[in-house]
Amino acid sequence: MPAAPTRDGPRVNEDIRNPQVRLIDQDGEMLGVMSGREAIQRAYAVGLDLLEISPNADPPVVKILDFGKFKYEQQKKKNEARKKQKVIEIKEIKVRPNIDENDYQVKLRAMKSFIEEGDKVKVTLRFRGREMAHQELGVKVLERVRTDMEAATKVEQMPRMENRQMVMVLSPR
Question: Is this model's pTM higher than 0.85 or not?
Answer without folding.
Answer: no
